[in-house]
Design brief:
Blueprint lengths: L3 E8 L8 E3 L2 E4 L3 E2 L21 E5 H11 L12 E4 L10 E4 L2 E8 L4 H7 L4 H4 L5 E7 L1 E3 L4 E4 L5
Parallel strand pairs: 5-6
Antiparallel strand pairs: 1-2, 1-6, 1-11, 3-4, 3-10, 5-9, 7-8, 7-11, 8-9
């Protein structure tokens, strides 16, 4: 069993602008995170409908690994993901329901890095993130998500 937490929370009110670090965010079922570009349906990939753009998660450990192994520094707000986690095996959460604080999420699919990410960040990071660029998740039950919140698999549902 793993023990995970939310390290930081990020949203961007418009497409292609820097992510803003926030102290909390409200997750709305079927919509995503209030104030984020995908909640407003104005994100770069908003034309791809469905639940996978509601919430994105990324492992802090990946940021640490690419710095150590590839000498590429990517700040938590630069990876373009909403929830930065620690101690959470995101690849194991595809198709699973889990809790992030008071919010229930369902892992939809793994994310792969794209040219758009590299363009917005302005750093050559694509090859360092292949097969470890986070998780798309759907909001099942809403509420507030804050840094420090626990993340745990909801074994009563899975």
């Amino acid at each position: 069993m793993w023990n995970g937490t939310i390290e930081s929370v990020h949203i961007a009110p418009k497409a292609s602008i820097p992510m803003k670090t926030v102290s909390e965010v409200r997750a709305i079922p079927g919509r995503g995170l209030e104030g984020d570009r995908y909640f407003k349906e104005i994100g770069f990939f908003s034309h791809n409908k469905g639940p996978k753009r509601q919430v994105t998660l990324f492992e802090t450990e990946v940021l640490e690994t690419i710095l150590r192994d590839h000498n590429k520094n990517l700040a938590s707000n630069e990876c373009r993901m909403n929830l930065i986690t620690r101690g959470v095996p995101l690849t194991h959460l595809v198709g699973k329901t889990f809790r992030a604080g008071e919010v229930t999420l369902r892992g939809v699919e793994l994310n792969e890095p794209c040219e758009h990410l590299q363009e917005v960040v302005g750093k050559p990071i694509l090859s360092s993130l292949i097969h470890r660029c986070g998780l798309f998740a759907e909001v099942i039950d809403g509420g507030i998500i804050r840094p420090g919140d626990k993340i745990e698999e909801d074994i009563s549902i899975n």
